[in-house]
Specification:
Elements lengths: L1 H11 L40 E14 L5 E14 L4 E15 L3 E20 L2 E21 L2 E4 L3 E2 L7 E8 L14 E6 L12 E3 L1
Antiparallel strand pairs: 1-2, 2-3, 3-4, 4-5, 5-6, 5-7, 5-8, 8-9, 9-10
């Protein structure tokens, strides 16, 4: 897990700063005419900066741990993320996946499953070598279900909404080498690491996202 720890430390060190100012026009004599201030133009990023940029990544884990005599806890996670940054400084993303947890005893299996799909749209901007991305949820779907099976019978409940709501994400994306599980650099194309500038409880694919 050293690779994920390094990626998280790299992103957490970056501070996302947003400044806002209000300017009042100078007082002018009544005899002078006041011109409306010009609105700043939204300048598109040229293609030489590597846009449009369409990234994607998938993650999957399958772990089993002991939870006592004759008991095991199995967690299976599979999720994927796509993130696009366009030349007009707009951005879009989709985060979808599923996680299943199963606790198995000598006679019974208790399970919980959660599936989600989150659609985002927003904006992005350059900040040196970083790309600062603001993603606002457009549509979301997340359901949970649980149940048990044993002694030739299976009992499950209806799907219910997930307790956590998805929120706006303020991401800092930085390009770097891909890392192995033991923390060494991998050969091949580098990856984009997109994480939050400050801790955030995102109910979808864990941050930072590792995308190519």
């Amino acid at each position: 897990m050293r690779a994920k720890a390094k990626a998280t430390a790299l992103v957490a060190a970056l501070v996302l700063s947003v400044s806002c100012s209000r300017c009042k026009p100078d007082r002018v004599p009544k005899s002078s005419s006041r011109e409306a201030p010009e609105k700043p133009e939204r300048v598109a990023i040229p293609a030489s900066f590597g846009v449009p940029l369409e990234l994607s990544g998938r993650t999957g884990t399958d772990t089993t741990t002991a939870c006592g005599e004759g008991c095991s806890l199995k967690e299976m996670v599979s999720s994927g993320v796509s993130l696009g940054m366009l030349g007009d400084l707009t951005a879009h993303a989709i985060d979808s996946g599923a996680v299943t947890t199963a606790q198995t005893t000598s006679t019974t299996v208790y399970y919980t499953t959660r599936t989600w799909t989150y659609d985002f749209s927003g904006t992005w901007r350059l900040d040196g070598e970083r790309r600062l991305v603001n993603l606002v949820p457009d549509a979301s779907s997340c359901v949970e279900s649980s149940g048990m099976a044993g002694a030739g019978e299976a009992v499950g409940d209806d799907a219910r909404p997930c307790p956590k709501e998805v929120r706006t994400l303020h991401l800092v994306c930085l390009k770097g080498p891909r890392m192995t599980e033991d923390g060494t650099s991998m050969d091949g194309a580098p990856a984009w690491y997109c994480g939050a500038g400050k801790p955030v409880d995102h109910p979808g694919t864990p941050l930072p996202w590792v995308l190519q």
